[in-house]
Amino acid sequence: MFEAHVRNNNLKPFREFYHNSCRFWRRCSKPDWREYKKIGVATLIGVLLMGCIGYFVRLITIPVNNILMAP
């Protein structure tokens, strides 16, 4: 009897996780075209912004590095 109680207590977190996962899965819906477009635009802006920042940092560090390393 005691072993069954311990086993049930050990499985309780897994059962709660399964229950919460099923509830989450039922509430999810497939994104429509407008939502895909929003995600794509936001991703594109982020990638372009990170690329510009990286380019300008590299553009600034090359001359500074040449000045510091000059003989």
Automatic annotation (TrEMBL):
<dbReference type="InterPro" id="IPR001901">
    <property type="entry name" value="Translocase_SecE/Sec61-g"/>
</dbReference>
<feature type="transmembrane region" description="Helical">
    <location>
        <begin position="39"/>
        <end position="61"/>
    </location>
</feature>
<dbReference type="GO" id="GO:0006886">
    <property type="term" value="P:intracellular protein transport"/>
</dbReference>
<dbReference type="GO" id="GO:0008320">
    <property type="term" value="F:protein transmembrane transporter activity"/>
</dbReference>
<keyword id="KW-0472">Membrane</keyword>
<protein>
    <submittedName>
        <fullName>Uncharacterized protein</fullName>
    </submittedName>
</protein>
<keyword id="KW-0653">Protein transport</keyword>
<keyword id="KW-1133">Transmembrane helix</keyword>
<keyword id="KW-0813">Transport</keyword>
<keyword id="KW-0811">Translocation</keyword>
<keyword id="KW-0256">Endoplasmic reticulum</keyword>
<dbReference type="GO" id="GO:0006605">
    <property type="term" value="P:protein targeting"/>
</dbReference>
<comment type="similarity">
    <text>Belongs to the SecE/SEC61-gamma family.</text>
</comment>
<keyword id="KW-0812">Transmembrane</keyword>
<dbReference type="GO" id="GO:0005789">
    <property type="term" value="C:endoplasmic reticulum membrane"/>
</dbReference>
<dbReference type="InterPro" id="IPR008158">
    <property type="entry name" value="Translocase_Sec61-g"/>
</dbReference>
<dbReference type="Pfam" id="PF00584">
    <property type="entry name" value="SecE"/>
</dbReference>
<dbReference type="InterPro" id="IPR023391">
    <property type="entry name" value="Prot_translocase_SecE_dom_sf"/>
</dbReference>
